[in-house]
Specification:
alpha/beta; Rossmann fold; 2 domains; 40% helix; elongated; binds thiamine diphosphate; binds iron/sulfur cluster; binds magnesium ion
Length: 315
């Protein structure tokens, strides 16, 4: 059945801010189609973004949305998910936002395996602010902060995510929206931290400065940096140098998910009658406080500094 895109968009906010030839709209379309195929109620969905061209998306989609600070979309989304574990929570953002300034938060969300989906629009540049280089800018490509070409090595976002503990990692391309939709859909359905790294052109602040021609030529240029998993298997390490592999690169269904682990901890605490359980439930009496043992105090210290410190003197 045809997708009713208007159902997922705030039509009163149109036209979109993005430049002609920008990949952001293609990624958004694939995203909406993935949600539509999953049949999720948009009122059960929350999208969080930071700042940047890609991050502008939270103004346009008709989910619950939060347009936060540059680099801070992920921790905000983690907070939303921890307090609403039954809802679908996702992050949309650029390479600068998610992995450059936001790199620290990115690593810890991967490690914690919290059930959010991050769609990273990787256009190799800080688009919104005029083309400064980011950690994904290809070596020797020009940027406003690298007029003679960047001399820094680049980061492979997917390998970084896998190394940090993400349980679903895929790479797609705005020039291949059919596969992109599939990766996004599988990432959304996955229970755990999912990342979809999407190579997407910024003809204005990357293509133009690097004299790559019109948006179609930039698409072709990006495509030539990508290889499918099947093809990569037949290539040597030397041939793979400077290439990025597309497809679903990693899935781990066994790793515990953070909101589940937290729920388990809360349930255990609720069932118990020890000092900490009473503290959490607010049923701690003065008698409990005065009878705390040194061993219990040691166990509690990292969580509750004030009360045990006061009680320490009374033991
Ligand atoms: C703390 C902070 N530092 C810097 C900025 C300025 N700033 C806004 S967007 C942006 C870069 C965005 O690049 P990216 O995340 O790759 O998104 P794109 O515009 O390429 O989609 C920067 C540096 C800011 N808003 N806040
Ligand atoms: S500056 Fe680049 S990333 Fe931003 S809207 Fe224009 S083409 Fe897209
Ligand atoms: Mg960018």
């Amino acid at each position: 059945m045809a997708v009713n895109y208007a159902n997922y968009l705030r039509m009163e906010k149109m036209p979109l801010y993005w430049c002609p030839g920008c990949g952001d709209g293609i990624v958004l379309r694939a995203y909406i189609e993935a949600i539509d195929e999953l049949g999720w109620d948009k009122n059960d969905c929350a999208m969080v973004s930071g700042i940047g061209c890609a991050a502008r998306v939270t103004g346009y989609v008709d989910f619950h949305t939060l347009h936060t600070l540059h680099g801070r979309a992920i921790p905000t989304a983690v907070g939303v998910k921890m307090s609403h574990p039954d809802k679908h929570v996702f992050v949309f953002g650029g390479d600068g936002d998610i992995v450059h300034i936001g790199g620290n938060h990115f690593l810890h969300a991967c490690r914690r395996n919290v059930d959010i989906t991050v769609v990273l629009i990787n256009n190799w540049i800080y688009g919104m602010t005029g083309g400064q280089h980011s950690c994904t800018t290809p070596s020797s490509a020009k940027a406003s902060t690298a007029p003679r070409g960047s001399y820094e090595p680049t980061i492979d976002v997917c390998q970084t995510a896998i190394g940090a503990g993400a349980s679903f990692v895929a790479r797609g391309f705005a020039g291949d929206p059919i596969h992109l939709k599939k990766y996004i859909k599988e990432g959304l359905a996955h229970h755990g931290f999912s990342l979809i790294d999407v190579f997407s052109p910024c003809p204005v602040n990357f293509g133009r400065r690097n004299k790559l021609g019109d948006p179609v030529k930039l698409m072709e240029f990006m495509k030539n940096t990508l290889v499918s998993q099947a093809k990569a298997k037949r290539m040597s390490e030397e041939e793979l140098e400077g290439k990025f592999v597309t497809g679903i690169l990693h899935v781990d269904d066994k790793k515990p998910e953070l909101t589940d682990s937290y729920k388990e901890l809360v349930n255990k605490s609720q069932d118990s009658s020890d000092y900490w359980a009473k503290y959490v439930k607010g049923t701690l009496t003065d008698k409990d406080k005065y009878s705390i043992t040194r061993e219990e105090l040691k166990g509690l210290y990292p969580y509750d500094v004030e009360t045990p410190l006061k009680e320490w003197k009374k033991i």
